[in-house]
Queue: 4 jobs
Job 1
Amino acid sequence: MKKFNLSKLIIIALIIIIAALSAIVISAKNFKSDKNPAAMTQVINDGTGFVDKVVAAPIHFVQDQANVISNLMDTYKQNENLKKQLSDLTDEKNKLAGAKSENKELKTALKLQETLTDYETTSANVITRNPASWNDTLIIDRGSKDGLQNNMLVMANGGIIGRVSQVNPTTAKVSLLSSSKGIENKIPVRLGATDSPSYGILTSYDSTQNTYLITQVTTTTKFENGSQVFTSGLGGGVGSVRDLLVGTVVGEKNATDGLGRQIYIKPASNLYDIRFVSVVKQMIGGK
């Protein structure tokens, strides 16, 4: 095996460098004098140009791909920032909508309190309303320490919504009139003109029509649609308070058993969105 001769390799490299430098010098001189380069110089120039292209091609390709990746990363970051901004705007919009809704209910509750000046009432917040029993019950943050008792009528959004059905020291459960389980403690109501009223019993809620159902009407008077219905205060005991708004008449029909009429009442209150309530303890100076 032949021994590697380093000195020969150095000599060959020096000859190539000298030749290349000579070609460059001659080319530059010819360029300044506008003369055509020698044939050897042309060959060297062409070879150098070809080598530059071959070497530069992958470098340019890598640079182009790097630019593409950089642009993609910039676009991705911009999209992520835009998504976050959109999410923040959506959150703020929802918070604003919630605040507006709560403000509207507070105004309604305040207006209701202004109309209940003849009654002893306690205001309360709804603290629990289970989706599984949304139309049946809710929990408020007032209880026996605040003077609440079972069967007291509860109002919200302009009309009665139910009765207190369970009292704890600091909380109470309200059974809603919209319950699919029926109204356990029926509510006596008054219909028609105050000078010649008719009376009946609010017995249930029709979820298909979103109306209360009044039966056992004491007269055959025809009630106009839109006429208001109030509690009558009859019956005695806790919760027998008169002149609380129940709703308005929207229709009637004969009972299926043939024993009288059924009057359909549109609730005066929004039974779905309830956040603040007023518990009516009693009427000042009587029922």
Job 2
Amino acid sequence: MKSLKYKIMTPVFVLSTIGILILSFFAHGIAKEIITSYVELAVEDKAEKLVSYVDHKLEAWEGQLELLASTDKAKKLDYEGFLKHIWDKKDLFKDHEVVLISDRKGDFIASDGTRGNVADRTYFNKALKGESAISAFSISKTTGNPIIVISVPIMDDYENVVGLVASTVNLYQVTDIINAEKLGDSGYAYIINSQGLTIAHPRKEFLLNDTLAKSESNTLREIIAKMKNGKEGIGYYNFEDIKKIIAFKPVKSVDWTIGMTASFDEVSENVSMLQNNILLIGIIIVISILTSLYFITNSLVK
């Protein structure tokens, strides 16, 4: 009689176990795909929001200078009146380290009292063409901080260019926000410019240099090359023995691309937990089936 019981239970056990293993395998694959897609959307959304934030800040600063350039004091190149206006509205221009006004020859006076000539600057030549400009980042000779220069042309009532208004903005006003952005336990954001320099990164050893662009990781160098060229996308790379996922998107106003990255291990951890839970449920189901069969076959044998 026992042989009959085993003949019934053995194939059921084998088939149930195979079924659970197959279910676990497919469930793991589906779960991994779903969670990976979710994480890709999450990093992409974070990158998109950071790009929008940076574009908004740059547009706001440029808009403030355009308002300055439209004042009568600017149009008349009334340097003293212009600087007094800036001082009276200092709260409005608190994000700007130094504001300057220049004539068509490039001779300027700045809000910190300095004078000089900017005729050799790219942004000056653009202003003479009636174009606004945002410079590449540089290091301020006065403060030692990384800065960008934003400039707008001054137009008279006949739309003729009579000079320019420009300001220096501390880059940390942007990079501090980027560096504070997180995704999960290990996710972070960084910015690469068109020269491959990292101008925002939570780790100081990568800041304001091309260390990442020259990384030993081939996959990372490929990603950085795309970011240098202002490409947009999602990719995977290995860095410091960690597989990472990244979404990257260029900023409209300047030659920067923002990347949001996270450890792929964090994603896989959730998938593995789900797989283990499926296996546990499967084992419970198999035990339940075998227990039920045991009592059923016992009653049949009797």
Job 3
Amino acid sequence: MNHQSSLQRLVAVAALVLIVALPLTPPVAAQASSPPLITSVTADYTASPPTLTIKGTVLGSPGTTTVTLDQLGNLTLRSVTSTQVVANLPTNPAVPPGSYLLTLTSGSKPNQFDEFWLTLGTQGPQGLTGATGAVGPQGPAGPQGLTGATGATGPACTSGDFINCYTGPAGTVGVGICRAGTRTCGPSGTWGICVGVVLPQPEIANGIDDDCDGVIDNGVAINACSPTNPCTNPPPSTCAGNILTTYPNPGLCSPADGYSGQFACVYPGISTPVDSCPP
């Protein structure tokens, strides 16, 4: 029992020593005063403006780190981390080629800086264009654009083309004398006038449907001695005793009331007195 009590007291003393020793470890804040260490500096003349990229350890933080380049003074810093600092190179005037001493300060204490000699040359020629990359997938369709302005009016027709034309009343083309004409497209791409069209004409006693209504010589008083009268064409013809002499034709000889007992030529449906017409 005495041996076990002695062991318990020894363990308790060791634990006390460990607890007392812990505060002796240097605080984190004390480690921040370590000097920076620059491991590499790279110039990039493709950036605008050109940059210096400084890599290393304990390089500081924004607001505490400064970078100077010999007599050029402090450089403008783009970004600052504990392992990388990016600074702009002056452009007006540009930094001439040569060797320069770069100094990086990471704090206010005397030992919080490091120096690095670097040589800056002239910018080399632009490299060759790289190969074209693979075509990416097609993107989604964009919204429909605005409607464009109306274009100029094109030609009405092609030169040499032709079409039928007719300006008479409906239902008269192809009846009696009425015929459609044609319009031909000219060199300027426009239709010409209607050529060859035959339109309805006033009806005359000629055995033809002049007004294209489907009836020949309708409504026309026929002169018995007119050369165009089918009852006496060509003269002389006589109509006596209900017999038409000299030439056959579609007319008929019949008694005509109102003509003092004379006979008349009836064509068609219109009676006209007929005597012996002079040659």
Job 4
Amino acid sequence: MRVKDLEIFLDILKTKSPTLTAENFKTTQPNVSIIIKNIENTIGSPLFERLGKRLLPTSKALLLGGLWLEVVEGYYKSLEVIGEEGMFLGEIRIVSTHTIGEYFLPQILYEFAKEYPKVKVISHSHNTGECLNLLKKGEVELALIEGEITKEYAKSEGLIAEVLGKDELVVASNDFILASKPRYIDELLDKKWILREYGSGLRDKFLNALGDMGKEIPIFLELDRTNAIKDLVITKGAISVFSKIAITKEIQEKILFPIEIINVNLERNLYSLKRSAQLSSALLLKFEECLIEAFIAIAKS
């Protein structure tokens, strides 16, 4: 039996459903059923009672589950020992929201690639909703997102959420006079607001903060790229909200000017999420460790 077969067996002890386990491992339900049948043939007796589409583990299955969990954990522990000798190998699939993927992650991935050249990190960027969907479907091992993720929400979705760091949002314009003093949001409602698309964590944070005050922004245009929005704010005199890190250069060069909004809290958390049912490899744990160290360094800078 392969380690992956044991992982599937352990997962089905939890889900009691070949269909759910197939989704967790990005395979098909017939493949899961074949693996379970092969294990039963190897053991020489049934390990599950079949009730419709559900599989109820026998006492022998539960006993084997405890033993095989130690085997799987020992396997990954051995990889960790190899990793400590500088021999991390393999592939990590991650997804991040646009701000993290464009402004935080590149430097982190560069340093990680220098340290672990035999590891391939496959990284894509989407909005928050799409990132969560890919993670829950098992298509990625880790999701790095902006937005507010409560422990209750994470638990209900079968996820584990860890706070990586903080991010500050700023409203910005190319009008230095407009930005010369703090403004109430009411003073800006007649401007041409360009926001990120529906599902964006940045958009949700901003609109929710205003919604708490009973305010609503008249959205002139929606785009799914920060740089495209930035260009229109610079060249057309529109107004938008950005992650501060995304416009640091433009603020320093006095191309864009941050507008302080009175009584609006625009600080948000950045999160790392993974599925609670997945078995984290030593490689993934090492990458998470590097992420945390990098965000601590960013917070101190």
